[in-house]
Specification:
Blueprint (H helix, E strand, L loop, with lengths): L1 H126 L36 H8 L2
């Protein structure tokens, strides 16, 4: 019986050692499963991070491409504006030169008008001695319609004849 008891005890000892080993194995299997899960999560997280970084690089590249296209567009637009400014400046210079000419012509015409007004004033003040009625102007029955009318003056209708001998006589006096 002792043998049986020993056997029984050894059997029971074996069972307990098997169950202890089984518990130890199941604990290490559980740890392995947890480690595998943790490793799987790490691997998935790394993969997710790689994908996120790839998407981020793609967004960054797209943004860079958009900015490059915008720079190209703005440079073209700037070149067009500069060309437009050059054309407008040339038009301005041309118009300014024309305005300078017109201003000079206005001054000349104002001087001529002033001279003509002085002549008219002189003729009107001198015409009072010719027996003109008061209220008559130069052209409405006044001086030019009467005696001073170029059409009434005979020498305006005569041709001017000059020769070298008559010119010498006139200038040698």
């Amino acid at each position: 019986m002792n043998n049986k008891t020993e056997m029984g005890s050894s059997t029971s000892g074996n069972c307990s050692s098997v169950s202890t080993t089984g518990l130890a194995n199941s604990g290490s299997e559980s740890d392995l499963r947890q480690r595998d899960l943790i490793d799987e999560r790490k691997r998935k997280r790394k993969q997710s991070n790689r994908e996120s970084a790839r998407r981020s690089r793609m967004r960054k590249q797209k943004h860079l491409d958009d900015l490059t296209a915008q720079v190209t567009h703005l440079r073209k637009e700037n070149a067009q504006i500069v060309a437009g400014i050059a054309v407008t400046t040339q038009h301005y210079v041309t118009i300014e030169a024309e305005n300078d000419i017109l201003r000079a012509q206005v001054l000349e015409l104002n001087h001529r008008l002033q001279s003509l007004n002085e002549i008219v004033d002189f003729v009107e003040s001198s015409s009072s001695g010719f027996g003109m009625e008061t209220g008559q102007g130069l052209f409405d029955g006044g001086l030019f319609d009467g005696v001073m009318n170029p059409m009434n003056l005979g020498f305006y209708n005569q041709p001017i004849m000059a020769s070298a001998s008559t010119a010498g006589d006139v200038f040698n006096c």
